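Listing S7. Sequence submitted for prediction.
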Amino acid sequence: MHLIDWLIVFVLNGAVIGYGLYLARSTETSSEWFLGGRALPWWAVGLSMFATNVDSADIVSVTGNTYKEGIHILSVYSLGSVAGGILAAFVIVPVIYRAGFYTNAEYLEARFGPAMRVLSALIQLQYRSSMLGIIIWSSHLLLTRFVELSSFQSWLLIVVLVLLAGLYTAFGGLKSVVWTDAAQGIVMMVAAAAIFCVVWNNAGGWDGMQAELARTGNDDLVHVGRYTGDDKKTLPWMVVIGWTVIGSGYWTVNHTQTMRLMGTRSLWDMKMAALWGVALSLPIMMVSVMLGVFARAIPEFQGIEDSDTIYPLLAGKLLGPGLKGLVAAGVVAAIVSTFDSMGSALSAIFTRDIYARFLVRDREDSHYVIVGRFATVGVLALGFLYLPFIISQGSMIKAFTTLISVFATPLFVTYLAGVITPAHRKSGLIGLLVGACYGLIALGDRMLFDKYGAEGAWFPSWFTTRWMSFAWSIFFTSLAIGLVTLFCGTQPQSTLAKPKDKGWLLNSREALPPLREHPFKGEISPFAQPIPWAILCVVGSVYVVFWLFW
């Protein structure tokens, strides 16, 4: 990296971090800290959702995964993101928003009881902190292979970035996070376009890439419908279903995203923000997806064993001065935007759903704001604990898909059952536990398979492989919820029980501004109706997966 590159990195990212610290000065109340006072416009929230969705782990691991396995992962950023964004903004989060809750877990207590609130909070902390570990490891790879820092310098810079992101997030809360993410999202878009153009030219464009893949026998890599899993026996549509479940769960269960939707100024803003975030994510992630297969068409990058190093190597070897700094700035922006997002969301879950609900229940508003600020840095530190497991998995995508089906998928099914079915109050906890038990069994079996082969596994591969496990997790969770409801009777979603919140938890909900359907003085114009835009997103994602790249 030349001096001009470092200047670009420090000026762009330093300006954004400084802006976050500036915004933090005006945050005082808990409603401002946790939900931005429910005053955030759709376009800023959508940019923030995009910046959070596309992190350094995506940039590195997606490029590496497509280099190794092909572009099937595109399904999660098209079908998965669209399905999840629509489910979250049009179905699930409006119920939570109207009830005046701050977190997903608060809703689950009202629907299924206090135990579900605790389990949901713990699952969120586990699910997203494990993702933090993947982001931290990908950041290390980028800083050592692309920026060419030493290992010590890399870890030192990561710790500094965690502290800086934690600092303005701790003081500014959601408002600082959303506005800084919006700025970081723009930097990430420019950086993605820069590296894609350079790699495209070096590979000889689309025709040159296809010709080289055909020559080397790798032309299946550019077709979603030709990937058959690690065992070469998985049906391609099962892989697509698995990615769709992952994407749907990410946008609905993950409070990192739903917290932003709850901070919008109206229900209309909520829907448009989700569609905007999804629409921005797809083309940028298509760039990362295609970088992997384009790398296969460049002779000097063929035959690399460690696929997670492909993106750092592409950026380090092909970019010249100036462009290298721009892409490095985009990488740092992706790292910081996800650190701040996860810090704010996970600290909100800890503060409201564990600390204030069960430990210290009736203190003044400022006390819980302070707790949330300290918790921000604490939850960011949890990500470092997952590094040994992530490194042992061989690739970051494999680590992610291995962990996601254990708890997050059953929780996703439970949310859906609570909102759209008359599931009995007792069924949520039982369904979640049954689904999690299957997830743990499947995880153990996959670990045995990886170590000892098929002979050492407990079950046949069709029951526990990482792609089949999503379908089985949904099946067992849904079956348990259905059976309990069958024997205990139905209970409509409209019969929400009030959580047994007292003091601050109750007062903070009552302090939220009045509910708004939309921000306009008159009727919503036909052009601004969310449903046609949602249909357009669905059609576009289906076209990309099943026609353009199938």
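Caption to Listing S7: primary sequence and predicted structure tokens for the chain studied. DSSP finds 23 helices and no strands in the chain. The mean pLDDT is 83.
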